[in-house]
Amino acid sequence: MAQLPDAAPTNRSLARRMTALMALGFIALLLVGYAAVRVMQRNELHTGLVEHTYQVERAVLNVRRLVEESEAARRGTMLIPGRDVTRANFFRARAQVPVALARIDALTRDNPAQRRYLQGLRLQLGSLLARQDRTLALLGQGDQRGAIVAYGDDAEVRDVVTIRNVLDRMALVERRLMTHRDAELRASQRAFYTLIVLGGVVLAVVAVISTLTILSYTRDLARSDEALRQLNAGLEDMVSARTEDLTRANEEIQRFAYIVSHDLRSPLVNVMGFTAELETAAASLRALVARVDAEAPAVASEEARLAAIEDLPEAIGFIRTSTQKMDRLINAILQLSRQGRRALTPEKIDVAALIGQIGGTLSHRLAETETELTVDGVLPGVVSDRLALDQIFSNLMENAVKYLRPGVPGRITVTGRRGRDRVFYTIRDNGRGIDPRDHQRVFDLFRRSGAQDRPGEGIGLATVRALVFRLGGSIDVASELGQGAAFTVSLPLVLAKQELNP
C-alpha cells in the first residue's frame, strides 16, 4: 500500500510560523473581544438610563393627566350634580393619583432634585385634594352655588397652576438628563462600531496570513493526494468484502432460524396430538370412576378419584397451555424469518392515507376504548415498502390502544417531518408509559415491560425494529411511567436499491 510522503523541512518551518502568527491573531482577537464586551456593557448601561428617563417622564405626564382629568370631572360634577358618569370619572382619576406618585417616587430615588420637586408636589396635591373634598361636601349638602364659588377661589387656581409648574420642572429635569444620556449612548455606539471595524481588520490580517501559509502546503497536499486515493481504494475493497461477509452471515442466521423453528414444530405437533388423546382417555377414566362410585364406592380409593377427577385434567391443561405458548413463539420466529427473506418493493406511499386505512381497521377498538386518533400537520410521503410500513404503523398503534391507562380516554397523535434525505414519523399516546430502564429492552424478542396484564408474547416491537432496520431506518422511544409514550421512526426518503435484497 502506498506511503504518504514526509513533510519537507521548509514546510515544517512554515507550519511553525503559521502557528505563531495564528497565536498572535488569536490574542489580538481576544483583546478586541474583551474590549467589545466592555463597550457593550457600557452601551447597555446607557440604554437602561435612557429608558429610565423615558419612564420618569411618562410617570410625570401621567400625574399631570390625572390631575387635569380630576379637575375637569369636578367641574362637570358641579355644573351637572346629578350626572353619575362625571362623578365616577372624578373618583377614578383621583384614586389613581397616589399610585402615579408612588411610581415617580420609586423611579427618582437616586435624583435629589426630583425628590425635592416631588416633596413640593405632594404638598400642593394635598392642598388641592382638601379643596376638592370641601367642594364635594358642599355639593353633598345641595349647595351648588357655594361649591362653584369655592372652586373659583384664587387659592384653588394657584394650587393647580403650581402643580403644573412643578410637573413642568420635573419634566425639564428629565429632558436635560435625556440629552446627556443620549449623548453618552451615541458615544458608546461609536466606540462599539470602531471596535467592530478593528476586529474586522484583525480578522482580515489573520485570514491573509493563513491563506498564504496554507498555499505553501499545496505542493505537499498534491503529492499526498495520489497516495490517499490508493488508500481509499483499498479501504473500499475491504468494506465491500466485510459487507458481503455480513450479508452472508445474516442470510445464514435467517435460514438457521427458519430451519430450527420449522423442525421444532414437528415434535410440538406430536405433543399436541398426544395431549388431545390424553384428554379423551382422561374423560373415559373420569366416567369409569364416576360409575365405580355409583356401583361400588368401596372399590376406588380417594387418591384414585382425585387423580382421575382433578390431578390428571389439571396436568393436561398445563401441558396444553405450554404447547400453545410454544406454538405462538415458533410462529413468531417463523414470521421474523419470513420478513427477512421477503423481497422489498419500493413505491411512492401517501403515509397520511396509510394511517387513515389503519385507523379504519382499528375503528372498533378505538370506539370501545374511547380513543381518538388524530394526524397533526402534514405527513411527508416516502418511497418505501408498503407492506412493511403498514406492519410498522399497525403494531405501534395497536400497542398504543392496548396499553391505555384505565379510566382515561385514549389519544393517539401521529406527526411527521422531513429532514434532508430522511423522514421522521412519531406515534404519540397518553397511555401508561414505559419505564426509562426498559426503553431498549422492549424491542428485544419475547421481552415485555411493566405489568403483564395484557395478552401478548413480546413479539410486536421486535418485529417493528426488524422491519425498520430492513428499510434502512431506526426507531427510538421517549416515555415516562404514567405519561404515555412516543415512538419515532426514522426512514430514508427513498429506499436504496442495495436494501432490496439483504
UniProtKB/TrEMBL annotation:
<keyword id="KW-0812">Transmembrane</keyword>
<dbReference type="InterPro" id="IPR004358">
    <property type="entry name" value="Sig_transdc_His_kin-like_C"/>
</dbReference>
<dbReference type="Pfam" id="PF05227">
    <property type="entry name" value="CHASE3"/>
</dbReference>
<dbReference type="InterPro" id="IPR003661">
    <property type="entry name" value="HisK_dim/P_dom"/>
</dbReference>
<dbReference type="InterPro" id="IPR050351">
    <property type="entry name" value="BphY/WalK/GraS-like"/>
</dbReference>
<dbReference type="GO" id="GO:0016301">
    <property type="term" value="F:kinase activity"/>
</dbReference>
<keyword id="KW-0472">Membrane</keyword>
<feature type="transmembrane region" description="Helical">
    <location>
        <begin position="191"/>
        <end position="215"/>
    </location>
</feature>
<dbReference type="InterPro" id="IPR036097">
    <property type="entry name" value="HisK_dim/P_sf"/>
</dbReference>
<dbReference type="InterPro" id="IPR003594">
    <property type="entry name" value="HATPase_dom"/>
</dbReference>
<feature type="transmembrane region" description="Helical">
    <location>
        <begin position="20"/>
        <end position="37"/>
    </location>
</feature>
<keyword id="KW-1133">Transmembrane helix</keyword>
<dbReference type="InterPro" id="IPR007891">
    <property type="entry name" value="CHASE3"/>
</dbReference>
<feature type="domain" description="Histidine kinase">
    <location>
        <begin position="259"/>
        <end position="495"/>
    </location>
</feature>
<keyword id="KW-0597">Phosphoprotein</keyword>
<dbReference type="Pfam" id="PF02518">
    <property type="entry name" value="HATPase_c"/>
</dbReference>
<dbReference type="InterPro" id="IPR036890">
    <property type="entry name" value="HATPase_C_sf"/>
</dbReference>
<dbReference type="Pfam" id="PF00512">
    <property type="entry name" value="HisKA"/>
</dbReference>
<keyword id="KW-0808">Transferase</keyword>
<keyword id="KW-0418">Kinase</keyword>
<dbReference type="InterPro" id="IPR005467">
    <property type="entry name" value="His_kinase_dom"/>
</dbReference>
<protein>
    <recommendedName>
        <fullName>histidine kinase</fullName>
        <ecNumber>2.7.13.3</ecNumber>
    </recommendedName>
</protein>
